User: What shape does this take?
Amino acid sequence: MLGNFTYCNPTKLYFGEDALENLHGELKKYGQKVVLVYGGGSIKKNGIYDQVTKILAEEGKDVAEIAGVMSNPTIHKLREGLDIARKHGAEFILAVGGGSVIDYSKALSVSVNCDEDPWDKYYIRFEEPTCETLPVGAVLTMVGTGSEMNAGSVITYPEKKLKIGHVFADEKIMPRFSILNPRFTMTLPKYQMVSGIYDIFNHICEQYFSGDDDNTSDYLAEGLMRNVVAASRKALIDPQDYEARSNIMWDATWALNTLISRGKTTDWMVHMLGQSAGACTNATHGMTLAAVSPPYYRFIMKDGLPKFVRFAENVWDIDPSGKTDEQVAEAGLDAMKSWMEELGLVMNLRDLGADESMLDDLVNGTILLDGGYHVPTKDEVRRLFQEAM
Ligand code: NZQ
Ligand code: ZN
Assistant: This one.
C-alpha cells in the first residue's frame, strides 16, 4: 500500500432483526427536541413509522416531522426542512429511510445553525461546516448508498440541472448510529432492490479501478463484489431470503464506509456521469449508474488493463487460458453486463427519460475527476453519454 491515510469511522451500527430495540438507549443520549425525517410514505405502509414513533414517545421526546423527502432530495426541500427544524429548536435528527432521507438529514445537520446559503457553501464551494452541527441517527430501510456509515450527502438543484455530492471531511457528520434490520428492506419494490444492488457493486468498482500497487483494499473489494453477485442472485429468486438480504445490507455498508478506499486513489467517474444524468432526468440513482457503466468501463479498459484482467479472473472466474489479456478483460466486462441484465437493470439513458437534446446539460453537469485510469475530456464525456443513450 503506497498511500498515507487516516482511518476513523465513529458510526455505531446495530444489525439484525432486533436492532430497533437499541433506539431506546441511543435516544437517551441526545436532547429532547427531535426532528423525525422520512420519505414519501413507505414507512407508514410497512409499519416502521409506528414502531419508531412508539419508541420516541416512550422516551418522552418532543418530535417535529419532516415528511416527504423525495428520492434525489432537492435544495428546495432542504430549505423547507430548515424552517421546521429551526422553529422546533431541534437538538437531534432521526432519519428513517434510504440514502435520500439520510443524505438530507446530514444536509440539515450542517445547515440548521448556519446563516449562509447551504447550496453555495456546501455543494458549490465544498466548504466544511463553520457552525454547530446537529447529531444524526438513522434507521435504514433501503440498501445501496452506504449513507448509513459515511459522511456523504447528495443534493439536487433541479432548475440548474445539477446533482452534487459532498463528502464531508469531519466524521461527526456521519450518523452517530445506524440501525440495520434486513427485514425492513423486504418491502422494497424489485426496481429499488436491484437498483440498490448495482449501486453497491459500482461503489466497489469506483474504488477498485484505480492505482497499480498491491493493496489490501483491492482484495477486500473483490470479496465484497463476489458476495454482492452471489447474494443478489439468491435475492432475485426469493426476495424474502433473509440470509441474502442481510448479506446485501452488510455489503452495502462496507462498500462505502471509507474502508476500501484507504491507501489508494479512487475513480468515481461513473458516479459523476450518473449524477449528471440524475439531475437531468430525476431517474433512480442506481439505474443511472447502470446505464453509463458498460460504455465507461469499455472506454477505460485499455488504460487499466492489468486491473481489468484481475477483475475478470478474481470476481467473474474467467479462465485466462488461450486468451490475450484484452480478451480476458473483455470477458470479465461481458460477465458483469450479463449479470446486470439478469438483475433487470435499465441499461440505457433513453429508457430513463434522456434524449440528445439534453446532451449539453449532461456534459456541463459532469464533474471531471482525475483519480481513475483515464481522465476524460468533455468531448469524451459527450461521446460516453451518446453511447449510453
Ligand atoms: O420515499 P419512500 O416512500 O420512503 O419510498 C422510497 C423511495 O421511493 C422507497 N423505499 C425506501 N425504503 C423502502 C421503500 N419502499 C418500500 N419499502 C422500504 N423499506 O425506495 C425509494 C428510494 O429511496 P431512496 O432513499 O431515494 O434510495 P437510495 O437509498 O438509493 O438513495 C438515493 C440517494 O442517495 C444518493 C443518491 O444520489 C440519491 O440522491 N447517494 C448517496 C451516497 C452517499 N451518501 O454516500 C452515495 C451514493 O452514490 C448516492 O449518490
Ligand atoms: Zn452510488
About this structure: Strands lie at 12-15, 33-38, 62-66, 92-97, 136-140, 152-157, 162-167, 177-180. The radius of gyration is 20 Å. The pocket of 5,6-dihydroxy-NADP (ligand 1) is lined by residues 39-43, 46, 71-72, 97-101, 103, 141-142, 144-147, 150, 152-154, 165, 184-185, 187-188, 192, 196, 199, 256, 271, 285 (CB under 6 Å). The mean pLDDT is 97.
